Amino acid sequence: RGNSDSAERKVDSVCPYCGVGCQLTYHVKDDAILYVEGRDGPANQGRLCVKGRFGFDYGRHPSRLTRPLVRREGVPKGMDEGFDPARPLTHFREADWDEALTLAAGGLTRLKADHGPRALAGFGSAKCSNEEAWLFQKLVRTGFGSNNVDHCTRLCHASSVAALMECIGSGAVTASFMQALNADVVILTGCNPAVNHPVAATFFKQAAKGGTRFIIIDPRGQAMGAYAHRVLRFTPGADVSLFNAMLNVIIDEQLFDEAYIREHTEGFERLKASVRDQTPESVAMACGVPADEIRAAAREYANAERAMIFWGMGISQHTHGTDNARCLISLALACGHTGRPGTGLHPLRGQNNVQGASDAGLIPMVLPDYQPVSDAQVRASFEELWGNAGTSSDGSGDALDPEPGLTVVEIMDAIHAGTIRGMYILGENPAMSDPDLTHARGALASLEHLVVQDLFVTETAQFADVILPASSWPEKDGTVTNTNRQVQLGRQALPLPGDARPDWWIIQEMARRFGLDWDYGHPREVYAEMQKGMASLNHIDWERLEREGAVTYPCLAEGAPGEDVVFSEAFPTASGKARFSPALPLPPDEPIDRDYPTVLSTGRQLEHWHTGSMTRRAQVLDDLEPEAVASLSAGELTRLGVHPGERVTITTRRGAITLVARLDDGMPDGMVFVPFCYVEAAVNLLTNPALDPYGKIPEFKYAACRLSRAEPA
Ligand code: SF4
Predict the structure, then answer these.
(1) Confidence class of residue 115 from pLDDT cuts 50, 70 and 90?
(2) For the segment 46-82, what is each residue's pLDDT rounded down to a tens digit?
(3) pLDDT of amino acid 6
(4) Ligand 1 atom closest to residue 24's alpha carbon, by position in its atom list
(5) Helices marked H in 9-96 — which ranges?
(6) Which atom of ligand 1 is nearest to the CA of 20?
(7) pLDDT above 70 covers what percent of the chain?
(8) How far is CA 347 from its chain centroid?
(9) Which of 416, 440, 414 is nearest to 428 (CA)?
(10) Burial category of 556 from C-beta neighbours within 10 Å (exposed 0-12, middle 13-18, buried 19 and up)
(11) Where are the alpha helices (DSSP H) in 483-641?
């Protein structure tokens, strides 16, 4: 804490990091955040984790961009080892806004004129507000003229959303994580909440102390294990087999909820047939879990009066990620564990606004509120809302493109293929976050024109032709939507430094240079337009958010609190019923073998966020976790002859990195875990870009690798 006095201001907002969406108050003096306190928000009740408490000084870091930058003539694109992001003027020169925007938009409009609308693509960001997401996808759809717009949902929960849309007709959670306090049994699988959703984890611990029995199903051990009633640590990649065996037990022992299945679901007979042979005994060896443990977990979940399932990217980031989620949905439907307090399905959303950005349409196959671009009626309604809707890809006039666009990894492939030639990237960092970075960085380098809008010269911005200096979260007003479907209002606490501008303003200036007649004066005007196109925002107007801070969607009536638990009566499908979607086990895309005998898995750390562009510039957070580490079991370290603190090299078919080894008792033998936020040991150089066929999400949680001892640095 700093010293407070009468000059101090308090500004209420929301944490910009994870999907929990903690409400907080900035204490501001002399245009700087002195300290941050948790507020009594619906998702945090005053609590904050280390990021929400200490993670805000990045906005005043010496490398913060305060002027537009333009690449100097003749400087090649790429990540030059000698390049210093704090002194970018060796590679870029400063420009005023008019010149920078003219160059930024001019390069893209020229490519569109020469090669057609589908030669362009845009990545928006889940770190931005709902209004910015809305404007960005609107610009791509009506200005660029295609649906080539995506964001990091493609790298986190796209497969979960694909399964949820298919099975229950909605991609969001069916109940908030607070409902764990009302549950008798909770399954946590493929998630590590104490690290990735820390404040949600505090409520899980509270629930455990109150008597909720937690079953953790994960290859790795974790801090929540101390609160668990049962822990099933399975062989990486064997999740579908394990879940099917649980379904087999529930069906074989008639533990399912017959009345619920009859009234609320379709396709149960198909599921029965699909899992008939997948007994716990038949899969125990492959799963690495004793059959009686699988039986016990299945019985506990099925016999509970109220039970919930929470999952994370350990489920979704596989080539069988959609199948994983289908199995979890089948478990809930078979046992009737949805639609009541203390029951539900909850994919723990990663970034602060990945739910809202997805809702707002930053997805290539759907318009806002998940309405298919292929539906002529849907397109017509948005064409009417947006007036002159731009030029379609077939040049037929003012119509939205009916063809779904390309996803994140597909866009990188299309750049290599020469079909995508220009990009506008807002707040995303694919030069760190994409799989197989050599391929992704090669794509960025070969773009004919790249515009990056960000706070810093990120790894991605190092490939840009024009860099537009954006606004950090405490410098803007806007709404975000957390993992619980709670729409919350963030308020501006700090002035923008130098010539940096609000993101919505920059997108609008780009749109105007595409000939679009936009004239928004404030994010609240954008939000008002969103309400006209998104039924999910009914009864949640900006003024109400200013008064109340947060409202859950769907909100069924003026002044109503919003529905914390949904689908009590019916599902939003054509029949009103949910659908079982059986899944059969498939091997990982790149199974371990003699040459590459160890499983590489990647993810986040408590102190760092996504690719580290913000948290590695936040002093307390970077002091706590300053260097790249590889987490390994004691057995694996002994086998390698490496002591904790010494260095290991990890090699896959795509490359090698060397970094410090850390002993982690939660790691199984035969597996290594590396966070993806460290550019000096960028683990995504090694990851496998193979995609789940439905969610198009890469297999970040499983790549075959080889470990070896490395010499000291
Ligand atoms: Fe921020 Fe998430 Fe931590 Fe809450 S739990 S303070 S939203 S990072």
Answers:
(1) very high
(2) 999 999 999 999 999 999 999 999 999 999 998 988 8
(3) 57
(4) 6
(5) 50-54
(6) 7
(7) 97
(8) 11
(9) 440
(10) exposed
(11) 503-513, 523-533, 542-548, 619-624, 634-640
Q: Out of 13, 17, 23, 480, give the residue to mutate to test ligand 1, the one with the largest number of ligand atoms within 8 Å of its CB.
A: 17
In this structure, the residue with its CA closest to atom 3 of ligand 1 is: 49
Give the number of C-alpha atoms closer than 13 A to the C-alpha of residue 712, restricted to the C-beta side.
3
As separate numbers, helices (DSSP H) first and strands (DSSP E) second, the chain gives 24, 30
Beta strand segments in 358-510, E: 366-367, 371-372, 422-426, 449-454, 466-469, 478-481, 486-490
What's the CA gap between 344 and 336, in Å, rounded? 9
**Dihedrals phi, psi of 639, to nearest 5 degrees:** -60, -35
Backbone angles phi, psi at 194, to 5 degrees: -65, -25
- Alpha carbons 231 and 214: distance in angstroms, whole number: 8
483 Cβ partners below 8 Å, 6+ apart? 19, 20, 21, 43, 173, 177, 197, 200, 346, 347, 348, 349, 355
The pLDDT mean for the chain works out to 95
Identify the CA nearest to 503 among candidates 65, 55, 12, 136: 136
Residue 704 in this model has a pLDDT that exceeds 60? yes
> In the numeric block, which tokens belong to residue 246?
């649980």
**How many angstroms does the Cα of residue 503 sit away from the middle of ligand 1?**
23
CB contact at 8 A, 569 and 174:
no
Tokens 């770190």 belong to residue: 127
Could you report the predicted ipTM of this complex, rounded to two decimals? Answer: 1.00
Measured in Å, residue 37 CA sits from the centre of ligand 1 at 12
Q: How confident is the model at residue 667 (pLDDT cuts 50, 70, 90)?
A: very high
Bond prior to 474 in cis (omega within 30° of 0): no
Model pLDDT, residue 392: 47
H or E element at residue 321: helix 321-335
Name the amino acid, one letter, at 176: S
pLDDT of residue 713: 79
CA nearest 361: which of 17, 550, 128, 578?
A: 128
State how far the Cα of 187 lies from the Cα of 201, in Å rounded to an integer.
13
427 pLDDT above the threshold of 90: yes
* Bridge-based pairing state of the strands 307-311 and 344-347: parallel
Is the predicted pLDDT of residue 289 greater than 70, yes or no?
Answer: yes
Q: What percent of the chain has pLDDT over 90?
A: 94
Ligand 1 pocket: which residues have CB below 6 Å? Answer: 15, 17-18, 20-22, 44, 48-49, 51-52, 198-199
Q: Are strands 185-189 and 307-311 parallel, antiparallel or unpaired?
A: parallel
The strand pair at 9-14 and 23-29 is best described as antiparallel
Mean pLDDT computed over 510-532: 97
pLDDT tens digits for range 179-221: 999 999 999 999 999 999 999 999 999 999 999 999 999 999 9
Q: What is the pLDDT, as a whole number, of residue 154?
A: 84
